[in-house]
Amino acid sequence: MDSHVGRKAEFTRDLAARLDGTDPGVLADRTGLLEATVRTMLSGDGELMSWEVVSACLAAAGVDGVEVGELRGRWAAAENALWEEWGGELHAAFERNGHGKPSKAVEAYREKVPWRQLTERYPVTFKPWTEPAFAADRRLPDPSTAGDIRDFYAFLAKLREWAGAPRQTEIEKRSWGTLPDATISAMLQKDRWRSTSDRERARIGHFARACGLPAAEVARWDEAYERLRHVPPTDDLARARAEAAELRRRLAAAQAEADELRERLSETERSGEHPAGAEEPREHPAEASGPRERPAEADGLRERPAGEEELSERPAVGGRRDAEREPGPETEGRPRRRWPSRRRRSLSAAAAMLVFAAGAGAGRLAGGGTSAADRPECFSGTLHLVGSTAFERTADILRQGYEARCRDARIEVSAIGSNEGVRALTADNAASTIAMHDGYLESDSDEIRLRGFRGYPVALVAFAVIANKDTGVTGLSLRDLRSIYAPDGPTSWKSIKGGGDLPIRLVSRTEGSGTRGIFEEHVLRGPEPDLSSSDCRRKDDLRASMHVIRCERSTQGQVLDTVDTVPGTIGYAEVHVASDARRYPNVRMLALDGRMPTASPTMDRYPFVAPEIFYTDGPPPNGSSAAAFLTFLTGDDARRLLRQAGAPVCVGPGSLISAPCQPD
Q1: Element spanning 611, H or E
Q2: Distance of CA 493 to CAs 502, 506, 593, Å?
Q3: Whole-angstrom distance, CA of residue 196 vs CA of residue 203
Q4: How high is the pLDDT of residue 293?
Q5: Is residue 183 classed exposed, middle or buried when 0-12, 13-18 and 19+ CB atoms within 10 A define those classes?
Q6: Residue 370: what pLDDT?
């Protein structure tokens, strides 16, 4: 009975007795598991099911807590017996190949060893999963019901809740290090549907196993991902049109009822009949407000002919509606430098800028020759600028100038990262919040394609590749820089011309950072390597097999602090902040292909440049603080402030957008 076979048989008999002959099909319906999974669990064939699966079936059958506790003990004994019998082989495999990838060990030994035993540290030691607290009446989500890739990732978050909502660090350990904490965080982000790949499919499988699902259930998630990986989210406009059609149907029914009541009232008045004791006929709500009219809500949601351009019903900044602006004479004959991109951007971004320019011009005309204090670009109250840490300096310069001009206005700048700034922007706060973002959002992003975000370019910003001075390098060719960030690139600075005998340590921004996106797209022309370190000094135990030391930091200030204090580090940050030698004495800005970053960048001379973009959730409401501030940005005062700060202005006289700031 000490063998794992005997222990598992003992557990299986007790489990079947507690379930008291409950039909596997019934348990499957109640739990959301496959009937095949339930039958395998009850028969004792195949792998020992995880406690997540077993406890779900026990809860569905109404087994009381005392009996569940007894079964938990027998289940743990069976798992430990299995580990004692086969775990030594896995342990020896790790010892023989200490720097091998964890995923290879997982694949090689999953059939023999209970993968619920996890790596705790390196050298390898193992311990069981912690037992989570499960929610009552929990049901496994069915990924096959997801309609698009965004739905699929929402189901992935529900799977985590079904497993007892383990922490990301716990999932990382459960996956034997194949899913770093940062990767898990990215998988659970609402906009993860933008990235689909075979590598992501493998991550889905590891995530499902880390939530306790057996092979048959994991296959469901793999298949659902494969089916949906190229299915974009459903167009919210189509959903709105369907809702509008239903609203029109209900409105027609209400009008028909009102017509019938009105006809009956007319007949009663003509005949002079009014039953004694009867109530006076009530006026229908449609009559109470005067002539019957189509509600504005229904009219705003009316269905448009196919191919007709969708335009917002809200007025743009300054009171004007969306309009296209023809190129002026200032742009004729001038060679245009198009914004480089691996993917062609949508024309909606350019259209949004023209809306901004046209609306701002109308605002200035409305002001006429009045004094600065009386112009419409001043508001009373508070405006929130949230987002990019690299944008913080420019935003703060504009804040100071605006508050000096408009005494009743208050602007709060919160540098929390480009991605977080976009997340903070909603339809509810559109009047008082603007997101700061490095570069343009992708044209197929949820924010642009579905929510109607509008981008307003402000100024060009240059970023610097930075390194600790002890690396010995003063500049890099783009070829050398890309090799450093390549999956199989050099790991020591002595491999680089002028470099010292130090390990290369990469300090990056977290996924979702606008600065990181620009660095990957326009400098590296590819993704950064996998995360391997938390402290930026050495590889984590779970990631000892990674090629190079690479850590992530959430702000550019944290990147600069790390590069300043950790030997052999290289990273990137906004030029003005990176050039603060008093604050960061050990940081050196590197030349790229012989070109140094400057305070007044141009697209032709330095590759690590991008426009800083203000984003709003649709055109800001007329008269709002957001609309007033954007109108101010097109004026001479804002341009003068930006030029004094050394920032090339995106919006020139006549409200024209300069060529380097355009999205295409």
Answers
A1: strand 609-617
A2: 6, 12, 18
A3: 11
A4: 43
A5: buried
A6: 40
Instruction: Kindly report the pTM of this predicted structure.
Output: 0.50
Q: What is the DSSP string of 394-458?
A: HHHHHHHHHHHH-TTEEEEEEE--HHHHHHH--STTTTTEEEEEESPPPTTSHHHHTS-EEEEEE
Statement: residue 186 has pLDDT above 60: yes
CA 635 to chain centre: 34
Report the chain's terminal Cα–Cα distance, integer Å.
71
Residue 283 backbone phi and psi in degrees, to 5:
-75, 130
CA distances from residue 505 to 181, 283, 562 in whole angstroms, order as listed: 19, 77, 10
Contact of 599 with 646, CB cutoff 8 Å? yes
Encoding tokens for residue 399?
Answer: 């804040």
Which residue from 535, 592, 566 is spatially nearest to 469, judged by alpha carbons? 566
Residue 569, strand partner residues: 505
Rounded to an integer, the average pLDDT of 277-292 is 44
Contacts 24+ apart (CB under 8 A), 64-69: 67/18
Predicted confidence at residue 233, as pLDDT, reads 67
Average pLDDT of the residues in 23-27: 91
Question: Tokens 């950072």 sit at which residue?
Answer: 513
319 pLDDT more than 50:
no
Of 119-123, 226-230, 376-380, 485-489, the range with the lowest mean pLDDT is 119-123
How far is it between the farthest Cα atoms of the chain? Answer: 107
Helix (H, G, I), strand (E, B) or coil at 23: coil
H or E element, residue 160? helix 149-162
DSSP element (H, E) containing 574: strand 569-574
Strand ranges in 289-346 using DSSP code E only, listed in sequence order? none
Task: Average the pLDDT over 581-585 and give the result.
Answer: 91
Number of Cβ atoms within 10 Å of the Cβ of 230: 9
Q: Put residue 570 in one of left, alpha, beta given phi > 0 → left and psi -120 to 50 → alpha.
A: beta
Which is more confident, 645 or 42? Answer: 42
Residue with tokens 């902040």: 577
Instruction: State the Cα–Cα distance between residues 446 and 440, nearest whole angstrom.
Output: 13
Residue 554 above 70 pLDDT?
yes
- Per-residue tokens: 464: 């610097």
d(CA 129, CA 140): 20
CA contacts within 13 A on the Cβ side of 101: 10
| pLDDT for res 129 | 80
Task: Please report, for residues 6, 188, 208, 513, the alpha-carbon distance to residue 160 in angstroms, rounded to integers and kept in the order given.
Answer: 32, 10, 8, 25
Question: What is the spatial distance between Cα 385 and Cα 614, in angstroms, rounded to a whole number?
Answer: 9
For 464, the 3-state DSSP assignment is strand
CA distances 389 to 142, 262, 385, 406, 436, Å, are 40, 63, 11, 25, 9
